[in-house]
Design brief:
Strand order of the largest sheet: 9-13-12-11-10-14
Structural class: alpha+beta
Number of strands: 14
Order of helices and strands: EHEEEEHEEEHEEEEEE
Distance between the termini: 31 Å
């Protein structure tokens, strides 16, 4: 879903107060205040984006009263349908995002143009068991893996050693 005008944290607090599971990918950012003081602050990694895990009926009821919550949609037979993400794919995406690793690069669907890649599973380390797509990014020498959430967003692990990838079919 989208929470317009940067209200994703407000929406998350509202939904969690209703016992609805939601997730916002977060990252650390260095914020400089007018006093010159610099503070490392946890902020949403992708503006306005949030993932909500509930029933269609429940979110429709909430959406009718909370004007800043909007569906992310995709075209389907001439109509726009809300996007749903398979639980397994969301689990992998969250597992990587929740590390707050400074080597992660967050991208929106518009920023990634993936061609068919090799499906891989990461073996060992922080991202053990995570499945994604192996990619080669121009001007980068290291292997990288993109973990997608159904074409809505992606996170790229920018540093993997050779022994940590297993090709899956």
């Amino acid at each position: 879903m989208r929470a317009t005008f940067g209200r994703e944290l407000k929406a998350k607090k509202l939904l969690e107060g209703m016992q609805i599971e939601c997730f916002i990918p977060m990252r650390y950012e260095l914020v400089t205040y007018s006093t010159g003081k610099k503070v490392k602050k946890l902020v949403p990694a992708i503006s306005n984006l949030m993932f909500v895990h509930t029933t269609k009926e429940c979110i429709q009821t909430i959406k009718s009263t909370v004007e800043y919550l909007q569906y992310l949609t995709k075209p389907d037979d001439g109509r726009r349908k809300p996007i749903t993400i398979p639980d397994n794919q969301m689990h992998h995406f969250m597992k990587v995002c929740d590390t707050y690793n400074d080597k992660l690069v967050y991208m929106t669907a518009d920023e990634i143009q993936l061609k068919e890649g090799t499906p891989v599973q990461i073996i060992g380390g922080t991202f053990d068991g995570v499945e994604g797509t192996f990619v080669k990014v121009e001007k980068k020498r290291k292997k990288q893996v993109v973990i997608q959430a159904q074409g809505i967003a992606a996170v790229m692990i920018t540093h993997l050693d050779d022994g940590y990838l297993k090709v899956i079919s």
